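**Paired protein data**
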Amino acid sequence: MQFSEIKARDDQYVLHTYARFPVDIERGKNATLWSTEGKEYIDFTSGIGVSSVGTANPKWVDAVAVQAAKLGHMSNLFYTQPCGALAEVLCRRAGMSAAFFANSGAESNEGLIKLARKWSFDKYGKGRGTILTLKNSFHGRTVTTLSATGQDVFHNYFFPFTDGFRYAEPTMEGISQVSGHDVCAVMLELVQGESGVWPLDQDFVHDLAVLCAERDWLLLVDEVQTGIGRTGTLFCYQQYGILPDAVSFAKGIAGGLPFGGFLVNEKCRDVLGPGTHATTFGGNPVCAAAALATLDILSEEMMGEISDKGNYLRTAIDAMELPCFGPTRGLGLMIGIEVKPGHTNREIAQQLMENGLLVLTAGPAIRLLPPLTITRDEMDKGLAILKQTLA
């Protein structure tokens, strides 16, 4: 099928909710992808951080195929081995106590919100359900997680939004200005991805964790994008020297299949019981098997390689001194590139894609989220396209 036919069918039958680039992908191997017509692309996107172990990773493919041949789905009213095995691996590597599995990042963050409000209700009763989030944050596209998102651009059309959120500047003074006796939790991303890849200040995060403990607020960390090795540790909070009360994850956990969830510490493990929270597909055995294979590939020993790869890409891009780019920022393989005035990130992304490099945009910046298994050769090919296109 020609690209024009693929696009025409999509335009006719798929809702136009995405500003798609004129690129179709048929197959791939690790961080190298090919269109239906055979054009090669280097992938610096991994499906917005989802294909964490690359495309068609053999260990991942085998795990999915073996489990699909045994059991594709089972209700959470019954036990399955992959679900419990995955929960154990995650809890042990994250230093947490228990897991809840869901399908997406937004659903995982909804779980954090429900957890915090029920925990506070059980302990303090009504009137203490407000959650503080940060300006420029992004927590999902459901009505409630849009309400939790600290960006005005998302607060339109879908009124009425869910009450119970206030937005703070990412400083202790900003937190103080929106605090109150009705607060039960603070929810934050340690690297604000959708607004342009902005890592939070280490001292601020530490002081906020201390404040949460003093005021008996839950500390909720949204690691939908930063988690599962993306920043160079299994979870980004492990680089910040904190242990949250609960942490959400999704995107890269199952290497390409829709999966997510959250982990809780000992204080929160008994907050949600039968009837208080559930989901039909959470803990799906095929997705859980894919996640186990993903975590096996992304071993503790590999975390240092991810940081090294991120440093390699950032150093190379900064050294190019491209006329449209300012400095890079980020952690591990979550990289933002400042776009200078007179250029737009959409324009730059389009030019790079035409020459065979797939990149993302975030806020006003270019965002890079390559597979964590990307090779040196693939990085060098991508960097060469970047330089040739933009120099």
The mean pLDDT is 98. Residues 59-297 form a domain with the Aspartate Aminotransferase; domain 2 fold (CATH 3.40.640.10).
